[in-house]
Amino acid sequence: MDKRALLLAKELSNEIISWRRDFHMYPELGYEEQRTSSIVSQRLREWGYDVITGVGKTGVIATLKADGDRAVAFRADMDALPLDEVEGREYRSKIPGKMHACGHDAHTAMLLGTAKILASLRNELKTTVRLIFQPAEEGGNGALKMIEGGALENPKVDAIYGIHVWSDLSSGKIGLREGPILASTGDLKIFVTGKGGHGAHPDQTIDPIVVSSAIILALQSIVSRNLNPFDSAVVTIGAIQGGTAFNIIPETVVMKGTYRTLSKETRELVKNRIKDLVEGITSAFGAKGEVELRDVTPPTINDPKAIEVVRKVASSIFGDEAIVVPKPSMGGEDFSYYLEKVPGAFILLGTGNPQKGTDAPHHSPRFDVDEDVLYMGSALLASIALNHHALWK
């Protein structure tokens, strides 16, 4: 397979790193990505792309047309997270309370690298390329806004690919997995109403804190006792709010948490069991319970055909030894919405390097990426675009 895209990506490596650092220093939260999208759209226009801005408020759609009716799409998310970065980095965030702690700055820079490579090789393209620079992946469901804005239409996209840097994988490894790779995500709230009173006389009350404790313990039985041992799910209570003083039994307790599964069927089972347990336990204690469940994203399910395309390309340009099969993660991604519309692949690029300090967890204030492998992401996506007509059969 032709390795020109790889050679061009290596030549662009310093430029890709420079873009990434610039985005990193000026992070923007979901639907606020004005500066980022402005830089992205300006570059794309300079390179000859047809560009549409303001999609989903701050998203950018760019198209590089080729002969024929086939089209392939690539997506990068642009938003940052609301936390402060650790001190000591020359490219540390300059915006208090905001940080690229999940690698979206790297995703944007890599897709720009892909765009520049393909612009220089546009005469070789036999498949139209659609680039999607998306806002608000972090809980804002920006993917839905981009889909509503026509990201997968005119021309109709045959397949879509996205890369996510991954600190759990060693730098330079390409993680490819068929089927579920990320979980569905959902938010839950549980309201427990009892009967308040004096802490010295619990017999005169219905203690919602005790009731809530029983609920929290019972929720853990969903995974251990209701699921097939070979299935996966998570039910987590992350916040409990109730009470005002050491000697007062409160009237109410509110719990907040998340539920995550690798299939929609399991998601419905988990949701039903949450409702049943809350209803049964509160009733047994003489309290009242109310449950609010909100599905956020579906599971991210990779298409086997799309994964095989990536595997062939990655093997050709990086060698078989670069490819690994990662474990599924209970993290979630709104890339899943694209995959519900068209087949595609969510690809992991390993950036974990303990010697460079790039193995911190995602969403950590210490998170960073091994910039020396970012060119690989640009090379891989560009090579997929150049060979998609021959491989997508």
CATH H-level superfamily of the largest domain? Zn peptidases
How many beta-strand elements?
16
Q: Unreliable runs, pLDDT <50, ≥5 residues?
A: none
Distance from first to last alpha carbon = 17 Å
Give the CATH topology of the largest domain.
Aminopeptidase
- The portion of residues assigned to helices is 25-40%
Instruction: Give the structural class.
Output: alpha/beta
In percent, how much strand structure appears in the residues? 25-35%
CATH architecture of the largest domain: 3-Layer(aba) Sandwich
Main sheet makeup: 8 strands, mixed
How are the SSEs ordered, and which strands pair?
Blueprint: H1 4-25, H2 34-46, E1 50-55, E2 59-64, E3 71-77, H3 104-120, E4 128-134, H4 142-148, E5 159-170, E6 174-175, E7 179-182, E8 184-193, E9 197-198, H5 208-226, E10 233-241, E11 248-249, E12 252-261, H6 264-285, E13 288-297, E14 300-302, H7 304-318, E15 323-324, H8 335-341, E16 344-352, H9 374-391
Structure characterization notes:
This protein has nine helices and 16 strands. By secondary structure, the protein is an alpha/beta fold. It folds into two domains: 4-181 and 299-391, 3-Layer(aba) Sandwich (Aminopeptidase), CATH 3.40.630; 184-297, Alpha-Beta Plaits. Strands 1-2-4-3-5-16-6-15 form an eight-stranded mixed beta sheet, sandwiched between helices. A four-stranded antiparallel beta sheet has the order 10-12-8-13, with helices on one face. Strands 7-14 form a two-stranded antiparallel sheet. Helix 3 links the parallel strand 3 (71-77) and strand 4 (128-134). Helix 7 crosses helix 9 (374-391). It is elongated and about 80 Å long. The two termini are 17 Å apart. The model has no long low-confidence stretch (mean pLDDT 97).
